[in-house]
Amino acid sequence: MDQDILDKLVRKTGHDVRTPITTIAGFADLLAEDRSLPEGARDIAATIVTETRRLSDMLETFFDEIGAGSET
Fold it and tell me: Hey, where are the domains in the chain?
């Protein structure tokens, strides 16, 4: 496969994967801070925030390793 095509594919894939993770983390962060929700619901939302950040960090490392970085 041509290197330019591969680079474009990696950048597009990186963007397509990062965007929903960022959205989920942002929404979960709002829920985790919402004092009108039961504590158990806020705890679950906080876990989602933690795990989406962990996943985001793993993806960032992966894309850095294959040369895509944050060029999306």
Answer: 3-65
Q: Which residue has the tokens 């996943």?
A: 55
Nearest-angstrom CA–CA distance, 18 and 72: 9
Digit-coded pLDDT (tens) for 34-53 = 999 999 999 999 999 999 99
Which residues are within 8 A (CB) of 66 and not within 5 positions of it... i.e. 6 or more apart? 10
Supply the pTM of this predicted model: 0.76
Two tokens at 1?
């496969």
- Amino acid code (one letter) for 25: A
Q: Which residues, including other chains, have CB under 8 Å from residue 28's CB and lie 6 or more apart?
A: 45, 46, 48, 49, 52
CB 10 within 8 A of CB 66: yes
